[in-house]
Amino acid sequence: MPLDKGGQIRTIRVPSRGKVLALSKTTDQRMKKKQLLLPILFLISAVFAALVFLQNREGEASSGQNDWDFAVANPEQIGRIFLADREGNTTLLEQKAGKWWVNQDYPASPNAMDNLLDAIERIRLKYRPPAAAVPGMISSLSTEGIKVEIYDTGGKKIKAYYIGGATPDERGTYAIMENADNPYVAHIPAWEGNLRFRFNLLGDDWKDKTVFGLRQEDINRVAVTYPRQRNKSFVLERQGNSFAVTPAYELVPENRGAVNRGAVERYLRNYNSLVAESFANQYPDRDSIVNLIPFCTVAIATQQGNQTVHFFPIFPRPGIDLKTGQVGNPQDVERYYAYMEERKDFMLVQQRVFRNIFQAYEGFFD
Predict the structure, then answer these.
(1) What are residue 312's DSSP bridge partners?
(2) Residues 6 or more apart from 357 whose CB is under 8 A from it?
(3) How far is Cα 336 from Cα 352, in angstroms, rounded to an integer?
(4) Number of Cβ atoms within 10 Å of the Cβ of 313
(5) CA-to-CA distance for 11 and 111, rounded, in angstroms?
(6) Cα-flanking dihedrals φ and ψ of residue 218, to 5°?
(7) DSSP string across 68-90
């Protein structure tokens, strides 16, 4: 038992039963108050955290910094697009006076640009990948990713991201925003396919295949020469509201007949839209062919500048009819190589498309 300072037994006073019950009741009330306060505090904390999260999300959306927001809502504000792949291939697409150009010197293909701008405008997040798929996506983006930089007409960068490979079902494409950590699967809604192909053109694939795309009223002068048929060569020149047609070579007699204005206008309309079949700049014999005497040279002066194209016929190999044994006609030309002098482009064109510009001098007179 407890002792006092003098070593005597100290008496312990025990509270009465009523007092013990009162103390116990007070303790229970305090515990209940604490139990009620904990859920309230938790609820307040949760609401505060949610408000902070929503505020951050709203701030990201207003600043356009979401790392899954690849689209440019207004493609008309785009002035420049730079593309680069992991193999060192680069393409610069720029808009000048409402027309797109490739690497500053070549008109861009309208079809290629339409497809690219459509993808830039309509690209959307398809889904967020599971964590297990992320390493493979990162690997794909690091080895075959195409960097896309988009600038407005004032030169300010709007977007920058990487386009990677396709998902196994080819319905989605890996994409990641520049300086972001998380890759995503992107797509174009209501369109199935790998949108990477819209960004992955190289070299001549971006260039316009139009050889002649001229309005009749813009043409001031056309000189068509056939080096091996000089009497068929001519110069057509606008003179006010009329036209003059003269021989292209000095020793060829001049036709004294009246120029048929309808024939001239029909002829000039042929230059409105003449498009090549394909580019042949990588053809091994290109330089040798360009140094040959052409079948025809067309030199046009317009209000916008001059354009000169040389045509070299492609003679088909003589074919043998297995029934008769007769050899086919090697003069039946179906295609030409066309060399655009100003652009330095070597192209393949079809006879059926261009035949109407290969007209003879005498065809313009009554």
Answers:
(1) 337
(2) 212, 224, 267, 270, 271, 274, 298
(3) 11
(4) 15
(5) 105
(6) -90, -10
(7) T----S-GGGEEEEEEE-TTS-E
Of how many residues is the chain composed? 366
Query: What is the rounded distance in angstroms from the CA atom of residue 225 to the CA atom of residue 274?
Result: 19
293 neighbors 278 (Cβ within 8 angstroms): no
pLDDT of residue 316: 77
Amino acid at 322: L
Residue ranges of the alpha helices (H) in the chain?
17-63, 110-122, 134-144, 261-269, 286-290, 351-354
Return the SS3 of 271. coil
- Secondary element (H or E) of residue 149: strand 146-152
DSSP-derived secondary structure for 295-359: SEEEEEEESS-EEEEEEEEEPPPPPB-TTT-PBP-TT---EEEEEETTTTEEEEEEHHHHGGG--
Confidence of residue 352 (pLDDT cuts 50, 70, 90): very high
pLDDT > 60? residue 59: no
pTM summary value? 0.74
Count CB neighbours of 249 within 10 A: 14
How do residues 166-205 score in pLDDT, each as one tens digit? 888 888 999 999 998 899 999 999 888 889 999 999 999 9
pLDDT tops 70 at residue 23 = no
Q: Distance between CA atoms of 235 and 243, rounded to whole angstroms?
A: 10
Phi/psi for 267 (5° steps) reads -65, -45
With 0-12 / 13-18 / 19 or more C-beta atoms within 10 angstroms meaning exposed / middle / buried, residue 8 is exposed
Rounded to the nearest 10 degrees, how much is the dihedral formed by the CA atoms of 162, 163, 167, 170?
170
**How far, CA to CA in Å, does 318 sit from each of 53, 326, 328?**
77, 10, 5
CA gap 93, 208 in Å, rounded: 12
